[in-house]
C-alpha cells in the first residue's frame, strides 16, 4: 500500500453524490463516496443489491439518466480531468476510449440486429478514426485476443448465434478494443456457469496485465473478489463502509457488515447444513433511519450508532472503516 500511495492515482473520486428525485422523494444512491484507482490494479466493489455499487460506477462516465438522477456534488478526476464538469461532446470521446464497461447480461447490451463485427468496428471507427477495412481487421484481432475460436467467422455472426460465454467474450473484446485506462466490469460472470466463469476471469486477468488496464470489478461473489481484486471497497446503503487490500479484508475485516458478508460464504470444512445470514434487508434509501444505516441488522450496535453516522477513518495504513465500534468519528 505504501508503494501504491506514492504513485499518482489514475482515477480519484471525491465526495461523489448521485441522488434520484421522484414523486417528492430523494434516494441517495451514492452518498459522499470517495476512493482512488491506480494504474494496473483491480478494485473490487462488493455489497448487496441496492447498496450503490452500479450507480457509483455508472456515474464515472455520466451514464446515470438525468432526470430523475442528479449529480449533487463531488469530483470524478480521470487523469486530472473532472468528468462532472466536461462537455457532453468530450464525455462521448472518453466513453469507450478511456473508460469502458462490461455489463452483466451481454444479450441486452449487444444489439441483436447487427453483426458482431459491425458493433466492434463502430467503436474503433468512432474513437480511433480507422477506416471500415482497418476496423474490420482490428475487430478480428480483438476477438482472437479474447480467445474466440475462428474469429474470421464469428465476426460475421449475430449475437443470438453465440453462447452466453461467447457473447461475454465479445463484450470484453468490444470494451478493450481501444485499450481503455479504466474497465468497469459489472457482475460480468453472473449469468455464466462456473467453468465458463473461471475462463472469463482468467481471460480478464491476462488481458489486464497485457494492456495495463485498471479494473473496477463489481460482484456479489466474494470468491471472485479473492481471485481478482488487489483492493476491496465494501458499500452499504450508498456509502463506503470499509476499504482495504484484499488480504486485509479477508484476514481482518472490521466493519460488522463486511464480517457478515464473509461469514455468509459456504464453508466446506463445516458439517453445518445452514449458512450464516445477515438478518433483515438493505433499508429503503429514500427513508433511511437516523444514524447508521446498518443498525437494525448489526449485532454490535451501540447508542452512538442510533444517533449519528461514523466517518470513514483510516484505522491502520491503507485500511479504512466507517464504524463507531472500530474507532469511527461522528460526522
Q: Which topology of the largest domain does CATH recognise?
A: Rossmann fold
The fraction of residues in strands falls at: 15-25%
Given the structure, what is the number of helices?
13
The number of E-state strands comes to: 12
Largest sheet: 8 strands, mixed
Q: Radius of gyration, rounded? A: 21 Å
The main sheet orders its strands as 6-7-8-3-9-10-12-11
Poorly predicted residue ranges: none
In a few lines, what is going on in this structure?
The protein is α/β, with parallel strands linked by helices.
How would you sum up this structure, described in words?
It contains 13 helices and 12 strands. The protein is globular. The chain is about 35% helix and about 25% strand. The strands form 2 sheets. The protein has an 8-stranded mixed β-sheet, with helices on both faces. The protein is α/β, with parallel strands linked by helices. It folds into 2 domains: about 1-100 and about 180-320, Rossmann fold (3-Layer(aba) Sandwich), CATH 3.40.50.300; about 105-180, no CATH class.
How are the SSEs ordered, and which strands pair?
Blueprint: H1 2-6, E1 11-22, E2 25-37, E3 42-46, H2 53-60, E4 69-78, E5 81-82, H3 88-94, E6 99-102, H4 106-109, H5 116-128, H6 132-145, H7 151-154, H8 164-176, E7 182-186, H9 194-211, E8 214-218, H10 222-228, E9 231-236, E10 239-245, H11 246-251, H12 256-263, H13 303-307, E11 313-316, E12 319-321
Parallel strand pairs: 3-8, 3-9, 6-7, 7-8
Antiparallel strand pairs: 1-2, 1-4, 4-5, 9-10, 10-12, 11-12
Amino acid at each position: 500500500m505504501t508503494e501504491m500511495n506514492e504513485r499518482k492515482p489514475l482515477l480519484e473520486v471525491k465526495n461523489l453524490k448521485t441522488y434520484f428525485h421522484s414523486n417528492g422523494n430523494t434516494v441517495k444512491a451514492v452518498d459522499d463516496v470517495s476512493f482512488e484507482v491506480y494504474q494496473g490494479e483491480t478494485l473490487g466493489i462488493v455489497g448487496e443489491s441496492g447498496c450503490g455499487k452500479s450507480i457509483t460506477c455508472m456515474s464515472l462516465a455520466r451514464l446515470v439518466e438525468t432526470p430523475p438522477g442528479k449529480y449533487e456534488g463531488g469530483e470524478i478526476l480521470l487523469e486530472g480531468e473532472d468528468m462532472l464538469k466536461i462537455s457532453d461532446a468530450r464525455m462521448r470521446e472518453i466513453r469507450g476510449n478511456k473508460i469502458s464497461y462490461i455489463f452483466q447480461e451481454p444479450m441486452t447490451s449487444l444489439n441483436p440486429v447487427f453483426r458482431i463485427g459491425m458493433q466492434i468496428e463502430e467503436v474503433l471507427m468512432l474513437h480511433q478514426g480507422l477506416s471500415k477495412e482497418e476496423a474490420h481487421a482490428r475487430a478480428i484481432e480483438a476477438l482472437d485476443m479474447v480467445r474466440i475460436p475462428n474469429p474470421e467467422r464469428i465476426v460475421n455472426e449475430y449475437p443470438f448465434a453465440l453462447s452466453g460465454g461467447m457473447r461475454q467474450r465479445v463484450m470484453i473484446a468490444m470494451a478493450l478494443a481501444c485499450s481503455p485506462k479504466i474497465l468497469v466490469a459489472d457482475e460480468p460472470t453472473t449469468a455464466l456457469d462456473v467453468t465458463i466463469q473461471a475462463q472469463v476471469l482468467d481471460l480478464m486477468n491476462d488481458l489486464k496485465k497485457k494492456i495495463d488496464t485498471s479494473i473496477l470489478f463489481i460482484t456479489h461473489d466474494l470468491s471472485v473478489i479473492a481471485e481478482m481484486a488487489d483492493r476491496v471497497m465494501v458499500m452499504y446503503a450508498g456509502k463506503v463502509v470499509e476499504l482495504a487490500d484484499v488480504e486485509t479484508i479477508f484476514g481482518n475485516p472490521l466493519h460488522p457488515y463486511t464480517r457478515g458478508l464473509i461469514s455468509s460464504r459456504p464453508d466446506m470444512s463445516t458439517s453445518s447444513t445452514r449458512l450464516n445470514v445477515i438478518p433483515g434487508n438493505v433499508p429503503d434509501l429514500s427513508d433511511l433511519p437516523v444514524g447508521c444505516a446498518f443498525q437494525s441488522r448489526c449485532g454490535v450496535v451501540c447508542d452512538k450508532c442510533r444517533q449519528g453516522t461514523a466517518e470513514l477513518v483510516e484505522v491502520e495504513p491503507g485500511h479504512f472503516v466507517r464504524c463507531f465500534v472500530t474507532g469511527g468519528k461522528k460526522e
